[in-house]
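Weekly puzzle thread! Below is a chain. First person to post its structure in token form gets bragging rights.
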Amino acid sequence: IRSLREEVYEHLRALMNQGRLRPGGYLDLNALEAEIGISRTPLRDALLRLECEGFVEIHSRRGARITELTLDRIRDIYEILGGLESTALRSVADRITPAGTARMNELNREMVAALDASDFARFYDANLAFHDTYLGLSHNAQLVRQIHILKQRLYDFPRLEGFVPEWERASIGEHQALVRLLEVGNVSGAADLLRDVHWSFSYQEPFIRRYYAASTEGEGGRGKREE
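Winning reply:
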């Protein structure tokens, strides 16, 4: 059974995901209390958790503000994700099986089909599942949880639907290269690819800027979907 604090946390996340709470804006706590029908305490607890995860900033005098995802923040998150995912992959080297790489190939084909059909939700789910194929082998639950939070921070608040086809095709190609390396037992090469290409901000920056160009101004750009 979820606690009231967890229910409020999930409700606030849903509002951000739907774009009803916009980055850069301050929260009207009185309105939220009335909308959700709660007291200030569980709302404050939920906001503290969101602050720890990087989704809001709490200011003593002005209240809680939805954190903007700037290019500098994206750059930092990419560096962290590259390090964490490559570390996770190296740590599960002895648990990667032919069945696992076959599943990754299957999910990559699902991404291709979703892209061909312009089905964003299907592409998004298959993309997450591809990465979770090896992340799910890790015994380090804290590391995997942090990866998931950072990815949500990049593209879920709010979630923007749509494709930059060249970017998605490039991502699929990177997935294929990753699987080929794993199939021949080159886990080190696969981990390096994750860190130095797949989650390299400098490598992916042209696509990042292009994807968010319609909803950004200058350096205040928001992040990219999980790739």
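Puzzle host: Confirmed. Bonus trivia for everyone else. Strands lie at 56-59, 63-66.
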